[in-house]
Amino acid sequence: MNQPVIEASGLSLTFQTNDGPVHALKDVNLTIGKGEFVSFIGPSGCGKTTFLRVIADLEHPTAGTITVNGMSPDAARKARAYGYVFQAAGLYPWRTIEGNVRLPLEIMGYSRAEQAERARRVLELVELDGFEKKFPWQLSGGMQQRASIARALAFDADILLMDEPFGALDEIVRDRLNEELLSLWARTEKTIGFVTHSIPEAVYLSTRIVVMSPRPGRITDVIESTLPRERPLDIRDSREFIEIAHRVREGLRAGHVDD
User: What are phi and psi of 83, to 5 degrees?
Assistant: First the structure.
């Protein structure tokens, strides 16, 4: 494995609620290397988004340790080590697409010239050049998500955390954005953590697939992909792809049986 970027050891997280404790994560051990594309898949409520939020310092573990680029999630957040793409594009309707992409750069104090150059570069990267002056409501859902990815890439963090970014899109648009994301990953060499409910999406995109059990969220399997880095969509019809998808499905089933 390449140099470790994210390392979790004995990680657990319990939420205290009025109805008693909720064990969201239990004894998670995982290392993600530089430049990997790691997908997290499991049933609703299994802790995959919670784990992503722990990496991003949006949630705090109650046991165990986690480091991001060798530092605490809090230090990594302050060092702007990652960009985060949420399920909804979350664009401000009163700002143009360029204005939305520039927002984190404004907050970070980049000069106007640097903001403009970075926005131009990332919008080109996600194939939205020519749409800079449009407003979010003038774009399709898929284009809005591309703008959201551009915003997360704007300050050039090494890590990209993506929480079901294509879950609400129809299959044709999702396929197209999956292809574009693989191409973007190849060009930028980012380390990507990607949450999904879709077995084909996880298998198509990832170098490794982390299968999680129902709550309390545990890792039931970590599957190394044997697919080549270059992946046309029709690779999904190959025997190799179908075998990996079968193993993911078996891992999900085993997680339920263990409970």
Answer: -110, 150
Q: What is the CA radius of gyration of the chain?
A: 18
Could you tell me if 32 and 5 are in contact, meaning their C-beta atoms sit under 8 angstroms apart?
Answer: yes
Which candidate, 89, 181, 97, places its Cα nearest to that of 132?
Answer: 97
The ranges assigned to domains in the chain are: 4-81+158-258, 89-156
**Per residue in 7-64, pLDDT tens?**
999 999 998 888 888 888 999 999 999 999 999 999 887 889 999 999 999 999 999 9
CATH domain 4-81+158-258 topology: Rossmann fold (3.40.50)
Pairing of strands 37-41, 159-163: unpaired
Hey, is 206 helix, strand or coil?
A: coil
The answer to whether the beta carbons of residues 206 and 39 sit under 8 Å apart is yes
User: What's the predicted TM-score (pTM) here?
Assistant: 0.90
